[in-house]
Design a protein that fits this description.
The protein is of the alpha+beta class. It is built from eight helices and 19 strands. It folds into two domains: 123 residues, Ribosomal Protein S5, domain 2, CATH 3.30.230.20; 174 residues, lpxc deacetylase, domain 2 (lpxc deacetylase, domain 1), CATH 3.30.1700.10.
Length: 307
């Protein structure tokens, strides 16, 4: 049986929010089978739980924000991406503010935290959302045209193409494909950092955003070059970060996908629109489990070992 997974031990981290610049404490706790991933605001007089779902996403400007009863948690996509990459089904995430800490701007620190806590198999079958029909969403036209698509696939594969028309970005890989059955999330995707342009940072800070951003937690570019002294971690780090984001955005649906995702210039908003379109399309998906691991997609049977 392909089993659900949680973490073995409680683990904590401290950091700053990318946009708020505020110090925040993060605690990851084991959760029982069937709990799902639940964010909990513990800085409030009465703690508020926010279970993940595609419909709990209430803001997709610059990051993915989820809300419940007017209480929100921002910038959840990097932590959600790490959970997707390591196959974590059940987890409590306690947070002392409204924004997940940015840490180094990638998912690598969250992968380290989850692995350090230990990954534990649970004696109940993991539930998957299996795509049965192609679902496509599109927006814009000409220079603003973008699209995202989910197609049937016995496994989990993502391909992404970017188009930023910037000399530093254009000199790197523009398209990447990641297949969970043959590639390693921790090695190939998790270390890709978020990126921004100096002109946009100035505008965001004028509007009270990106207050916690800097060269230690983002790739920063002027009009011509990358400003980070150490350069890039991957030759195609920009597009790999878009894959990282997409994995986090899509995992907000609440279950791992059996699907092929492909996209051109997509982002948080279009990724969530894709999930909502899938949920609204009759017959587009069903929920499946694998009592026999031999017939399960190899990528999900070869996840980081539980110990």
């Amino acid at each position: 049986m392909l089993e659900q997974r949680t973490i073995k031990n409680l683990i904590r981290a401290v950091g700053v929010g990318l946009h708020s610049g505020q110090r925040v404490e993060l605690t990851l706790r084991p959760a029982s089978v069937g709990t799902g991933i639940v964010f909990r605001r513990i800085d409030l007089a009465e703690p508020v739980d926010i279970p993940i779902s595609a419909l709990s996403v209430t803001d997709t400007r610059l990051a993915s924000t989820i809300s419940a009863n007017g209480i929100k948690v921002q910038t959840v996509e990097h932590l959600m991406s790490a959970c997707a990459g390591l196959g974590i089904d059940n987890l409590y995430i306690d947070i002392t503010g409204e924004e997940i800490p940015i840490l180094d701007g990638s998912a690598a620190s969250f992968v380290f935290l989850l692995q350090s806590a230990g990954i534990e198999a649970q004696k109940v079958a993991k539930q998957f959302i299996r795509i049965n029909q192609t679902v496509t969403v599109m927006e814009g036209e000409g220079a603003t045209f973008k699209w995202a698509k989910l197609e049937p696939y016995h496994g989990y594969k993502l391909s992404f193409e970017i188009d930023f028309a910037h000399v530093a970005v254009d000199s790197t890989g523009q398209r990447v494909e990641f297949d969970l059955s043959i590639d390693s999330y921790a090695r190939d995707i998790a270390r890709a950092r978020t990126f921004c342009f100096t002109k946009d940072v100035e505008m965001m800070r004028a509007n009270g955003l990106a207050l916690g951003g800097g060269l230690d937690n983002a790739i920063v570019m002027d009009d011509y070059k990358v400003l980070n002294a150490e350069g890039l971690r991957y030759g195609d780090e920009f597009v790999k970060h878009k894959i990282l984001d997409a994995m986090g955005d899509l995992y907000l649906v609440g279950h791992p996908l059996l699907a092929s995702y492909s996209a051109f210039r997509s982002g948080h908003a279009l990724n969530n629109k894709l999930l909502r379109a899938m949920l609204a399309q009759t017959g587009a998906y069903d929920i499946v489990t694998f009592e026999n691991e031999k017939i399960a997609p190899s990528g999900y049977t070869q996840l980081e070992p539980a110990w």
